[in-house]
Known about the structure:
By secondary structure, the protein is α+β, with helices and mostly antiparallel strands.
Amino acid sequence: xxxxxxxxxxxxxxxxxxxxxxxxxxxxxxxxxxxxxxxxxxxxxxxxxxxxxxxxxxxxxxxxxxxxxxxxxxxxxxxxxxxxxxxxxxxxxxxxxxxxxxxxxxxxxxxxxxxxxxxxxxxxxxxxxxxxxxxxxxxxxxxxxxxxxxxxxxxxxxxxxxxxxxxxxxxxxxxxxxxxxxxxxxxxxxxxxxxxxxxxxxxxxxxxxxxxxxxxxxxxxxxxxxxxxxxxxxxxxxxxxxxxxxxxx
Length: 249
Ligand SMILES: [Zn+2]
């Protein structure tokens, strides 16, 4: 297997990330997709997303798709459920780092920056270990007519996990992909055993491993639906909408 050399500012192998629809479509309230979980798993064994109707956060680990609901509880999703937005890949841990102990999200971020070959590629991230705490929030199922995501996520409750082992999974996306995806880090959490999780706001990792899979190719699948056809995918306040719905600070 090819190994990434940090001194070389290029990934050493090509790796495809597959994406279903666009972040800007989700922001515009396009919450019903046309891809089933079964089809999505055919494009990757690792990833994140959401479900039709914005019914919870999705996290795919080792080919198993988990659905996390608004109260932080998790269950395995069925192959026939559908998703309006997903990013997946077949995760290969080309870069692995033993995390220095007791670091928060903002302290781990520069460590990841220092290990990746360039800001200009995509990265899948997997952090496994023992967490002192993980602060999450989870979207809740919407009813039609759907509101824009900035309104639909106003009431999201945050769920905090303490003294928990588990996995944080997701993607670090270049700024030039803004609107296609969420620029920066977008990660979800699943506690070991699938006992709970959510969209990660912050965490403190007592000890664990950070694994990174560089992405060089993006396969984008746009929904062939009337709703997507009519969506406003380039709003003037795109930055503010992404910040309000995903970063929540
Ligand atoms: Zn999320």
